[in-house]
Specification:
The protein is of the alpha+beta class and 350 residues long. The protein has twelve helices and 15 strands. It has two domains: 143 residues, 3-Layer(aba) Sandwich (Aminopeptidase), CATH 3.40.630.30; 164 residues, 3-Layer(aba) Sandwich (Aminopeptidase). Strands 1, 2, 3, 4, 5, 6, 7 and 15 form an eight-stranded mixed beta sheet that branches. A hairpin with a 5-residue loop joins β2 and β3. α2 packs antiparallel against α7 and α5 crosses α9.
C-alpha cells in the first residue's frame, strides 16, 4: 500500500486546519495531538516542533505523530510526543501507519542526535520499544447532572471536606485576560515551588491560551480578595482538562483546591462538557490519592520509549531518589529566585 511520511508545515494555516479536522475525527485523539498544541509549545518554550504526517494514496491523512525536540543542559536531549503534554503518541487509522510513523520518528531522533524518543500514549510502533505502564495514572469520569449529584458522586469522607469548602468565605472568578493570567501564574508558581519543582515559563501559558482561544480559560478562587488557588483548563470535544492548577500555602487550610475543582465541574457543565479529565499523576503520590478520593478510578497510562544503543533512559521523574536533595533545596528557595531560575530549567523537561 502506498504510504509516505512527511513533516507538516504548521505555519501554513490551511495545513493546520486540515490536520486539526482529521485529529478531531479520531476517537483516540487528545488536545495534545492538535497542531495548535505543538505550535504553542514551540513558541512558549523555544523548543522545535516536528509534526509527522502519514499519507496514503491521493494524499489522504492516515496518521499523525506530533514531536517536540527537547534540549536541556541538565536533562539532555530527547524527542518527545508530545512536548509538555500527557498524551500525544501515535494516532493512526491502520497498523501499517503506526509502524511507519514510529520508524520515521526514530530516524528523525537519530538525525537530531536525540538518544531518547518518548511516546505518550497510542499504540506500540514495534519490538524495539520499551513499554511503561507503571509510572503514571490517568483519572477520568463523567460529570454529574448538577451540583448536588456531583456531591453525591464524591466519596463520603471527601464529600465532608468539600461541604466545608463550599461553606467557606471563598469566591470564584473565570477569565483569560492579562490580569487573570498574572494571578494564575503567581499562584501556580508558588504551588510548584512548594512541591520542589521549577515553574514553566509564562510564555508557555500565554501561548496555549492564545492557541486555544475560547477553548481555554482560567478559574481562580479568592479568599478575602486574595487569590489562593487557580487552574488553567482546556475544553475539547465535551471534556474539560484542568491542566495547570495549584494553590498557595493558605489554600490547604481553606480547602481552596477542593472549591476550585468543584467550581470547575459546574463551569464545565455550563460550557456543555460531559467529562472531567483530572489529568495524570504519578502512582503512589499524594496527587494520585487526592484524585482517587474524589471518586475517580485510576487507569494506567501506557507510554513507550526507544533509546540509542548504550544510552541510559532520560530521567526527569522527581520521585527519582537522585533528585531528593535538589528538590529539598528548591523548596527553600525564595519565590522570586525560583521564578527567575525555574523557567530556564523547566523548558528543557518536555
Amino acid at each position: 500500500m502506498t504510504l509516505s511520511v512527511r513533516t507538516a508545515d504548521l505555519h501554513d494555516a490551511s495545513e493546520r486546519g486540515r490536520l486539526a479536522a482529521w485529529v478531531d475525527a479520531q476517537a483516540d485523539a487528545t488536545p495534545f495531538h492538535l497542531p495548535e498544541w505543538s505550535m504553542a509549545v514551540a513558541k512558549g518554550c523555544r523548543q522545535r516542533s516536528h509534526y509527522l504526517v502519514a499519507e496514503g494514496g491521493g494524499g489522504r491523512i492516515v496518521g499523525v505523530l506530533p514531536l517536540t525536540a527537547i534540549a536541556s543542559p541538565l536533562f539532555g536531549r530527547a524527542l518527545v510526543s508530545t512536548g509538555f503534554g500527557v498524551g500525544g503518541g501515535i494516532l493512526a487509522e491502520q497498523g501499517y501507519a503506526v509502524a511507519a510513523l514510529g520508524q520515521a520518528a526514530w530516524s528523525l531522533a537519530t538525525r537530531l542526535r536525540c538518544p531518547s524518543l518518548d511516546l505518550r500514549g497510542g499504540p506500540c510502533p514495534g519490538e524495539d520499544w520499551v513499554r511503561d505502564d507503571m509510572t503514571y495514572l490517568s483519572f477520568v469520569r463523567r460529570l454529574a447532572a448538577d451540583d448536588e449529584a456531583e456531591l453525591l458522586a464524591v466519596p463520603r469522607k471527601q464529600r465532608a471536606e468539600l461541604r466545608k469548602a463550599l461553606a467557606a468565605d471563598l469566591t470564584v472568578e473565570v477569565g483569560a485576560d492579562r490580569a487573570a493570567r498574572r494571578t494564575h501564574y503567581r499562584v501556580y508558581a508558588e504551588s510548584v515551588r512548594n512541591l520542589g519543582t521549577p515553574v514553566f515559563p509564562t510564555a508557555l501559558f500565554a501561548a496555549v491560551l492564545e492557541a486555544f482561544g475560547a477553548e481555554a480559560d482560567i478559574l481562580t478562587v479568592r479568599h478575602q480578595r486574595l487569590a489562593v488557588a487557580s487552574v488553567l483548563s482546556l475544553y475539547w470535544r465535551g471534556t474539560v482538562y484542568p491542566y495547570w492548577g495549584g494553590g498557595t500555602e493558605a489554600a490547604r487550610g481553606l480547602r481552596a483546591n477542593d472549591r476550585m475543582y468543584f467550581a470547575l465541574m459546574a463551569h464545565a457543565r455550563e460550557r456543555g462538557c460531559a467529562r472531567f479529565d483530572f489529568g495524570r499523576s504519578k502512582a503512589g503520590t499524594g496527587a494520585a490519592a487526592f484524585k482517587k478520593n474524589w471518586g475517580f478510578t485510576p487507569e494506567p497510562l501506557v507510554y513507550f520509549s526507544r533509546h540509542a544503543e548504550g544510552a541510559a533512559p532520560r530521567s526527569i521523574n522527581p520521585l527519582d531518589p537522585k533528585y531528593r536533595l535538589q528538590i529539598a533545596a528548591w523548596k527553600r528557595l525564595p519565590l522570586w529566585a525560583a521564578n527567575r531560575i525555574g523557567p530556564l530549567l523547566s523548558r528543557g523537561l518536555g
